[in-house]
Each structure stands twice: as C-alpha cells, then as structure tokens.
Task: structure prediction
Amino acid sequence: MSLGSAGAADPLKVGFIYVGPISDHGWSYQHEVGRQMVNQTFGDSVTTSYVENVAEGADAERVIDQLAAAGSKLIFTTSFGFMNPTLRVAQRYPDVKFEHATGYKRDANVATYSARFYEGRYVVGQIVGRLTKSNIIGYVGSHPIPEVYQGINAFTIALRRVNPNAEVRVIWVNSWYDPAREAEAAKALMDQGADVILQHTDSPAPMQAAAERGAWAVGQSSDMTRFGPQNHITSIVDDWGPYYVSRVKAVMDGTWTATDVWGGFSASMLHLAPYNPKIGTELIALGEMTQKSIEDGSLHPFQGPFKNQDGKLVVGEGERLTDEQILRMDYYVEGVQGRPPR
Result:
C-alpha cells in the first residue's frame, strides 16, 4: 500500500483500489492520475492511499474492508468486478462513503460513476472506416460485459456507416490486464487480415504489436502515442481527476449523496488524444466534427437505424437507445463477426 500526502490534523482519509498496476499505462494509471490530483488540490487536508493489482472477487472484499477498517471515510473501487464486494463492505461500514466505477448497484452510502467510453469509439469508427484498406478490423476485448459491448457496437455502427464493407473481429482475453495475452490476440487478429487494432484492455501491448507489424491502432484509457508513434491513430482517454476532486469536496462539506454519474465528452470525463497527422487533415476534421456533434447532442452513437448481427432491427430511423437499454447491452450489431460469449 502506498500513501499520499498527509499533515493536517484529522485529514480526510480517502482510499483507492485498482484492478491492475498503476504502471499499466492505461486504466489504473489514469485513476492514479486522478488520485494525485486529489492530493495536489487538497494538500494536508486529505490523506490518500491506494492498493493496486487487486483481483476481482474475494480478494477485493478483503482489501476494501481493510481500507475501511483503517479509517478511510471515502473509498473509490475502480473496476466492474468490485461491485458486489463494495456493496457487502458498505453494509458493514454505514458511516463510510463508497464510490464504484462502471457498476450499476447503489446503496445509501454507495455511489456509482462511469464515462461514456462508447462516444469515443463512435468517433474512431468514422475515421477507421475510411482508413482501413483490408476492411477487417481487430478488436481485443477484456470481459463480455455491457461496457465492452457498448464500445464494440458503437465503433462498428460508425465504421459501417462510412464503409459498409468493413467488418469487426473480436478476440476476448478474459482479463483487464495481461500484456502477453493482449499482444497474442492482436497478432492473431492481424494474421486474419486486420490492418487496424482496437482494444478494451489496459496495457499498451496491442498498440505495440500493431506498431511492430505496421498496422494502425487506437489506444485505451490513456494516451498511448509513445508506444507506437507512427501507428497510433488516437487514444480514448479517461479523465477522472475533476470527478474525484468534486466527490472529495462533497464529503468534506457534507453534501455527498449516493449519485449515479455517467459522463461523456460534454462532461469532460473523456477526450481523444491528439490525432496522428499521418491520417490526414480530412480524417482529423471528420473526427473533430463527429465529436462536436456528440457533445452538442445532435448525434447519438446509438441512434437508428441499426440491426443486430442476426439482422433484427434494434432501433428504427430517428430513434435512440435509452440509457437503460445501453446499460443492458449484451449482443453484437451487424458487422461484428462471431457470436458473443455466454
């Protein structure tokens, strides 16, 4: 366990739990950047701590309990599989505030928060549809949960609106962070003809594998430019710092409530890393225009018409999926090859 800054009398203790290492250069790294912003903002008024590499399940419950027992009054649990362990510990510590990332279960002292990662995937889909030469796109998936399906489907919908001949092939690695398996999946997809690699995993291994083969790639959670400068299109970057600062402040001033926050571009909870100039000014302008349309609400990534992979209309012309429908997503849209794992 690593400790943040301390010094003031009775500082607020805030704990963070990460599913991977803070050196993953992706998901856990970005949450760690957010923790550091809390330290910088509040100084000696707050003491933060974190535990990294926490497995989802029983180990998570043990670690969350340890943080609460050690006096943390606000605990951020930052992976989907921490949901039920967080709720169980919260019931034992009603005076502690808990925040769970990407989950959907709340309680009087448990809030939830996430970002609309799928908005970034839609923007990227528009670009990749015009960039691909093979019309085969590889996608390295972590776990088959709604958050990951949302990204695959939003990307595919956008991809095929500009290039109806393009298809997406997914390999699931059943892990958030496993560089070796992520790299193997990316290589297998390129062996199948993919000339662009996307990922919903936490290490830069797929980006590095793409760079070695001369394929394009899109980074995940953090700006991964440095892992493939010539091949990096952009990255979908999470920005947790402002949210963490606001929630710590809410605990300190007594206004904290068990809210559910799901923010996208317009809430500044995610942004796109600088585009690679090699993709050209036309595609960069397309990406910027698409993002602006999502931000102002004139475009929704899940507005119809589009079908699932069985050819059944999911939503019609002029209609949009509701948040509830998006949060339950467990299927592939038309254009994704293979069947969803069950």
Observations:
- The chain has a mean pLDDT of 96.
- The two ends are 36 Å apart (CA to CA).
